[in-house]
Amino acid sequence: MVLSALALTWTVSAHYQLTYPASRGFIDTSEPTAPCGGFNNVNTTRFSFPLHNGFVVINSEHVQASIQMYLVIGNNPSTQAFNQNTTIDNLSIKQPGLNCLSANLANVTGAADGVNATIQLLFNAGDGILYQCADVTLSSSASLNQSECPQLIGGSSNSSSSPSGSASASSGSASASPSGSSGSSGASTNSVAMGTIVLLASVAFALGMF
């Protein structure tokens, strides 16, 4: 009974934190408040964020969750502006703790060098949507600390289907080869049989002539 109560408490209180780049702020009880978990003021110090091959890092207290990532253009976007955001990516995580999420802005409308913007995360682990935001300045020359991201989720790293496809293709080729070899063997056997018949007929014909 005590274990059940503890499990329930963990489920209800479990949230997440945006750790890189730094979020506007985090208060556990206000994280369900849109659009930025109760923090409506822009950070005065913005993070320089790359247009290509960017990522964000979260610390999840849930085992798995779906995450929607958006970009809102503007120096100080209003609450209404978040309703006109642009999707960066839709991702999912399958482990608690630190998770590094791809945030490539290369094809995001409005993303350009020198533009001020806000990255918004919507985190859903089945117990309601939780919000976090990070204020950034987009840069074509910025680079991130790769040590913050040992394993990227999404983006170019999300290629688990390729090995599977290759294995499937290889398997198909392998299974086709024995079939082809069997066919060649059958053709060879038929050729030998025909040769034998011709030879016997020739011998019979020769004997008949004597």
UniProtKB/TrEMBL annotation:
Residue ranges of every copy of the Copper acquisition factor BIM1-like domain listed in the record: 13-149
Q: Which UniProt keyword terms apply here?
A: Cell membrane, Glycoprotein, Lipoprotein, Membrane, Signal
| Superkingdom per UniProt | Eukaryota
Q: Where in the cell is it found?
A: Cell membrane; Endomembrane system
Could you name the Gene Ontology cellular component terms for this entry? endomembrane system; plasma membrane
Keyword tRNA processing found? no
- One Pfam annotation reads BIM1-like_dom
Q: Residue ranges under compositional bias (Low complexity)?
A: 154-185
Which stretches of sequence are listed as region Disordered? 153-185
InterPro entries the UniProt entry points to: BIM1-like (IPR046936), BIM1-like_dom (IPR046530)
How is this protein positioned relative to the membrane? Lipid-anchor
What is the protein's name according to its record?
Answer: Copper acquisition factor BIM1-like domain-containing protein
Natural source organism: Bifiguratus adelaidae
